[in-house]
Amino acid sequence: MVPVKSRLVQAGAAAWIAGTAQFFAASLIVQSAWRTPYSWAANAISDLGAVHCQDTGTANPPDRYVCSPLHAVANPSFIALGILLASGALLTGPAWGKGAVSRAARGLLTAAGGGMILAGLMPEDVNLNLHVLGAFLIMGVGNTGFVLAALARRTTPVGRLRALTLPLSLIALLATWLMFSHHTPVLGYGGMERAALYPLLCWTVITGIYLLRTTTRPPGAPVSRPVRQGHQHPRRRDPEIPSPHARCEYPGSGRRAGPGRRTGLYAGSE
User: Fold this and answer.
1) 66 in helix, strand or coil?
2) What is the tens place of the pLDDT at every residue in 175-211?
3) CA trace torsion 126, 89, 106, 21 (10° rounding)
4) To the nearest whole number, what is the mean pLDDT of the chain?
5) Backbone phi, then psi, for 248, in 5-degree steps?
6) For the whole model, what pTM was predicted?
7) Least packed by Cβ within 10 Å: which of 69, 71, 103, 203?
């Protein structure tokens, strides 16, 4: 039977995978419904959830025309991602180990999930201030927790992924700073926003798969090894049956019979 803690970790890992998968699927569907071209470089992710067709003006640079016919699909997807991201951070606790750094990382990632929920509930053209607050919780607070995740103890399942976590988290944190400071060279505003968010989402999928693989078998369970063909384990000999090479003594003869010596009626014919 799989321990309760392992089941919780598996549930959290599955939540991470499902949250990211549904988010990317919904984003592709929503952007494909745009009548005006949707650009990953010029358009923000939040544009997918805008409920009105209008020019964004200068409130959310750069200037662009936004009209998302399937915003009713995008915003619930944002909310679902937030719920599943926070749930994964809470449920995978046993895989993080103990310590202030691990607890802080999980707490910040949970706050990032709350920020995604807020962004879905308050689209950019409904309440920009709350929407920006949600974006800051997602990328500013969440990526700080992402960096702390790279500092988890190496003996823990999450800590074993440090070689992956550290570079991704640093890229995401740098992109977050560039985006909020309106320094978006080469990638554009939309591209920089994705560079700030997508590393975390990709990490949740990779980590989720890793945790599912490492918690499927209960700790301490024996690993069965296949026996090679043609190889048989040596049979145990019954202690009551003497070995053919054993030396035995015959009563009254004072002689011992060894391997190759005849016994019985033919003993004297040698």
Assistant:
1) strand
2) 999 998 888 888 888 899 999 999 999 999 999 999 9
3) -60
4) 84
5) -130, 155
6) 0.77
7) 69
